[in-house]
Structures are given as structure tokens and as C-alpha cells.
Amino acid sequence: MKKIIEESLERALSYTEYRNLVSTLLTEGKSTGPNQSEDLLNYSKLNDKRMKRLDKTIKLTEETIAKIKDVKEPQTWLVLTEGWCGDAAQNIPVIHKITAENPNIDFKLVLRDENLELMDAFLTNGGRSIPKLIALNEKKEVINTWGPRPTEATQMVADYKAKNGSLDAEFKEDLQVWYNKNKGENTQEDIISMLQ
After folding, report:
1. Mean pLDDT of 88-94
2. pLDDT tens digits, residue range 106-141?
3. DSSP at 32
């Protein structure tokens, strides 16, 4: 496992590098990942706009700031993501803003489809769900994980699947409305819980 993590970290991007990669690909009419389609491109465009907006508007709670400043040991927070993923677009700017409060936390991102070995070690209910945050200590040992979405959204997904069998376009719209209303608060709560 350590070798997989170390290899992924060698390919990892900073938040700025990741945002620049997604933007550059969009100017070329592409999304991240090996699979290219009109749908993935459109999701990527929408998510790029979402992330730009969230980068400007996300507000951390006083509790979040206080708890994150309590992290004294150096850590790396490695996130598996793709530019077309709606959950990633809603959560990664929040996680980035949290990590920016503490120089002991190094925030890195890798593309899921270029790091399948790592992804397959951190499946959610057997699926390659993203974003997936892997918190590592100084020795690059896993100390915690989070993802692919905040607890309230996870419950919404589970309830909808139990009732309807799968997620449809209507549910995905409802989920985005929830994200917009929640403003990253549930993600902050989850991350704070992860630290305790």
C-alpha cells in the first residue's frame, strides 16, 4: 500500500495545478480522464464554474478554523478526483480552504482514472466513488479517509436509491440544490469529526 501511495504522491498536483489543468483541458474541448464525451465535457464546464464560485464564497466556521489549527503533526491530504465529478466540484474547494488554514497539512490531488490502483484500495461500497480524501501521517500511513460526499448528502443518496433503485437526473439536481443551500457546512462538520 505504501508504494502505491508514494507513487500517487509523485503524480499529485497542488490545488492550483489541478484547477489550471481542468481549465486548460476545457480550452481544448476536453475533460479529465481517458473517457471523453459531450456529457463529461459539459459537466466539467459546469464544475469549473462551480469551483470558481465556491473558491470566492466558501466561509469556514470559527469551529472549523479552531479545530484545523489544532493539527500539530504534519499530514498530507491526498484527494482522488476528476474534473467532471459534481461531488468533487462541491467539496474540494471546501477542503482546500480548510487545509489553507494550517501549514502542517499538505493538500494534494490526483486524477482517479490515472491512479486506479490507489482508487481500488479506497472503494466506497465497492465503487470508485470520488472525491475520496486519504489523510496520511508523516510516514505516509493512512490515518483517516473521507468521501465521496458529506454525511447528509450520503444519506440522501442512500434513501433515494432504496426507494427508486438508482439515481436519476432529477435527484442529481436536488442534490446540487442541497449543496448550494448547505454552503459546505456539512463537509466542514465531517472533516472536523475526522480529526477527532
Report:
1. 98
2. 999 999 999 999 999 999 999 999 999 999 999 999
3. S
Distance, CA of 147 to CA of 167 (rounded, Å): 18
Amino acid making up residue 148 = P
Residue 2: Cβ-neighbour burial (10 angstroms; 0-12, 13-18, 19+): exposed
pLDDT level of residue 75 (50, 70, 90 thresholds): very high
- Round to whole Å and give the CA distance between 62 and 187: 14
pTM for this entry: 0.95
Nearest partner of 94 among 128, 53, 123, judged by Cα: 53
The answer to whether 131 and 125 have CB atoms below 8 angstroms apart is: no
Residue 178 CB neighbour total at 10 angstroms: 16
Q: Which is it for strands 132-136 and 75-81: parallel, antiparallel or unpaired?
A: antiparallel
Name the grid cell of 104.
502542517
